[in-house]
Prior knowledge:
- The protein is built from 3 helices and 5 strands, in the order ααβββββα.
- By secondary structure, it is α+β, with helices and mostly antiparallel strands.
- Helix 1 crosses helix 2.
- It is elongated.
- The relative contact order is 0.11.
Amino acid sequence: MTKADVINEIADKTGIDRLDVQASVEAFFTVVKNNMASGENVYVRGFGSFVNKKRAKKIARNISKNTAIVIDEHYIPSFKPSKIFVEKIKNSTKIK
């Protein structure tokens, strides 16, 4: 399912104009990206959490040149689904 499919489905189910739904979805993604870029986590009750995970400094190998490179400590975005979300997926009959 693509973002356009999500927008169309929300517009069909709610009766709200597709352009208004698109603006809302885009605004949600912008808020999540901006808050995570500033170091804040985003928690959506009943859905999940968008959190920044810390990756430790490590030494990696460049196989083609056979050299060691240092990868500094950095953060990556991560999504952790809520317990309600996980249970809904576990109990789904369409996935099995």
